[in-house]
Amino acid sequence: MTTTPRMQLPAGRAPQLRVMPMPSDANVYGDVFGGWIMAQVDIAGSLPATRRANGRVATIAVNSFLFKNPVFVGDLLSFYADIVKVGNTSITVNVEVYAERNRLQTEIVKVTEATLTYVATDENRKPRSLPPLGPDDDVTELNHLQELGGGWQSV
Q1: What pTM value is reported for the model?
Q2: Where on the phi/psi map is residue 63: left (φ > 0), alpha (ψ -120 to 50), or beta?
Q3: How many angstroms separate the CA atoms of 22 and 32, rounded?
Q4: Cα(117)–Cα(115) distance, rounded to whole angstroms?
Q5: Contacts of 104 (CB under 8 A, 6+ apart)
Q6: CA-CA distances (angstroms) from residue 87 to 44, 73, 113?
Q7: Is the N end or the C end of the chain the one with fewer CB atoms within 10 Å?
Q8: What digits encode the pLDDT tens for the residues 83-118?
């Protein structure tokens, strides 16, 4: 008898955000509201964008959003976010969300994929240019993209 390999959280990567939905985040059947998940994805995506912008960012586009599996109250959600494109003022981020279910016999399920674009803003909430990467900047996102065969794309 062959067994199907179990899904695991992405190896060698730390989630940007981990959260467990509560009953107030779900309908009467225990299914978590899509809008709640969308809000958490936006928060997770904004974290690397804020670091890259070295300051305030605003969400300007949800380029894609796919709910692959339902999320239930009690699932432990892990949000992984990677910068995939950098422009003059904008930063595009891919976010993947995994749910850890059945706490005693952990089952891991990919529940959501999304791509969002943020724009760096100044103190007046107007678009501003991104600062150049310095020699001491954490370029984990760049290294990860290069490992995947990609790289920074500027617009």
Answers
A1: 0.83
A2: alpha
A3: 8
A4: 7
A5: none
A6: 20, 38, 22
A7: N
A8: 999 999 999 999 999 999 977 778 999 999 999 999
